[in-house]
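Hello forum,

I keep getting stuck at the same step: I have a sequence, I want structure tokens, and every attempt I make locally crashes halfway through. Rather than fight my setup again tonight, could one of you with a working pipeline run this one for me? It's a single chain of 185 residues.
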Amino acid sequence: MRLYRERLGVPTSWWLVTLACAALLGTPLWAGLSIAFAIAIYAILGAVCAVVLHLWGAATIEVTDTVMRAGSQVLPLSAVGEVAAMDAAQTRALRGPEANPAAYLLIRPYLPESVYVEVAGRPQQRPYWLIGTRSPSGLAAAIEDARRRGDGDRTWDDAHGDHAPKPGRSRRIEAARSRRGSNAR
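Reply #2:
Ran it on my machine without issues. Output:
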């Protein structure tokens, strides 16, 4: 059962600015040519811009009873550790100076807030996910709700502690939280 779904579509203002830029770029391209060339150039530039914006905004976030999908990646909820909603300053810190190059980031410049999802056991290939969203508290709550529903059937064996989340808040979250009040840009 799907608990949460969000499409990271590009806002209308970006569409308007991009199409205005295409119109400005198209004007010198057809100057001195016939009106048929002008129409063709504007149509081609507008179509290319529309396809690029549509493909870029086609990424979705989905939480079901068993998995979380962000873009093309899938994470079983049994592998989710700590989950935290991040404000704009924390998101900037986690995708900038505090970022781990191995982390999975699904961020968009028009989404200033995000959700931090720790991968249990912190594997080297993907220690955490940072997912840009319009509703960080809603996404974090959906992940926690899905984890509570499926707590009884964890698929990994924690006998050796290799999948256990680290106790307490992670250093990255604490560093991001400490930047909330700073004047660093």
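The beta strands are 2-7, 60-64, 67-70, 73-76, 80-86, 104-106, 114-119, 128-132. If your local run keeps crashing, start a new thread with the error log.
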